[in-house]
Specification:
Elements: E1 12-18, E2 23-24, E3 29-35, E4 39-46, E5 66-73, H1 74-80, E6 90-97, E7 104-111, E8 114-117
Parallel strand pairs: 1-7
Antiparallel strand pairs: 1-2, 3-4, 3-5, 5-6, 7-8
Length: 121
């Protein structure tokens, strides 16, 4: 809940799909940082069987208005998939939350050579 408003915070959810293999990116490490006066991590975890990062930040915990960056550890994921020298390594994505009540959904679709990342619905 947002302090004093009685309203739930929106949160940041992440959905990752390995489109080259046609399945959720199980095992992909994701870190979410707030980049205000000082950088601090608000979420860290591994993409699960359903392709989602299961973390309280998806339900609004630790999320307020401001600048954020999500970092996807694609290089480590691809090495675990048998690609010795992946083209991609850490993929960062910066965005701004203006209304902390709004939910920010980030669909991340990738192959070993490129990706698409955007604000979803």
């Amino acid at each position: 809940m947002l302090k004093g408003t009685g309203m739930a915070a929106g949160g940041i959810s992440v959905h990752a799909v390995d489109v080259a293999r046609g399945h959720p990116a199980r095992g992909l490490r994701v870190d979410i940082y707030a980049l205000g006066d000082r950088e601090h991590r608000i979420a860290e975890g591994i993409i699960g069987e359903n392709g989602l990062l299961d973390h309280p930040s998806a339900r609004g915990e630790g999320v307020s208005a401001g600048l954020y960056e999500v970092r996807f550890a694609i290089g480590d994921y691809l090495r675990a998939q048998g690609i010795e020298k992946p083209f991609l390594d850490i993929v960062p994505f910066r965005f701004v939350i203006v209304d902390e009540r709004a939910h920010i959904h980030l669909p991340f679709k990738f192959t070993p050579f490129g990706y698409s990342l955007f604000r979803g619905a």
